[in-house]
Amino acid sequence: MEPASADTAEGTTVDLLTETYRAHYRSLLGLAALLLDDTASCEDVVQEAFIRVHSARRRVREPEKTLAYLRQTVVNLSRSALRRRILGLRLLPKPMPDMASAEEGAYEALERDELKAALRGLQRRQREVLVLRYFADMTEAQVAETLGVSVGSVKAYGSRGLAALRVTMEAQT
Fold first, then answer.
1. Running DSSP on this structure, what letter comes out for residue 162?
2. CA distance 9 to 16
3. What own/partner pairs with CB < 8 Å and gap ≥ 24 does 119-126 have?
4. C-alpha–C-alpha distance, residues 106 and 32, integer Å
5. How far apart are CA 45 and CA 17, in angstroms?
6. Which residues contact 43 (CB under 8 A, 6 or more apart)?
7. Residue 58 Cα distances to 2, 4, 67, 69, angstroms
8. Which of 17, 77, 170, 171 has its CA 20 to 30 A from that of 40?
């Protein structure tokens, strides 16, 4: 019996992978095109899929499933590309808002002052919960830990505080 060469040890052979490339490159490109929106990314994803399957070809136990592995790799790489794009968009600096007019600035300051006055009129715990929850942007669990109360108490104080704040603010308008 002839010993297996490096290309034909277990798994997919280089020849089978080359044949699969010739026969299915376009269909894999079409699959990527359904998941991504630009040709360059599609080509990159398909090329990377072939590179990864080539690198792992000895682990493919059933060579007839090479195309299935390639398809799955294209799908996974497309997902990763989309995730990177979304993350990149989130990290882009936000555009500066248009400057408010003097009247708008004065109106906002007045609303802030009214809100502060209304907050001062709340019970101490309600005010603490609302300030920590909405101005310090803490979770209910973090507020509970900070104040040394249960999460249920935070919810109750927050609910009652918002209701009282709403009544006070509506009465001022």
1. H
2. 13
3. 119/165, 121/164, 121/168, 122/161, 122/164, 122/165, 123/157, 123/160, 123/161, 125/149, 125/153, 125/157, 126/157, 126/158, 126/160, 126/161, 126/164
4. 53
5. 16
6. 29, 32
7. 18, 12, 15, 13
8. 17
Q: Which two tokens stand for residue 169?
A: 């603010």
pLDDT for position 140: 93
pTM: 0.48
The DSSP-derived string for 5-74 is -TTTSSS--HHHHHHHHHHHHHHHHHHHHHH-S-HHHHHHHHHHHHHHHHHTGGG-S-GGGHHHHHHHHH
Tokens for 139, please give them: 């979770």
CB neighbour list of residue 103: distance below 8 Å, 6 or more residues apart: none
Q: How far is CA 170 from CA 71, 85, 120, 160, 167, in A?
A: 59, 43, 16, 15, 5
For the stretch 1-17, pLDDT in tens is 344 444 444 677 888 88
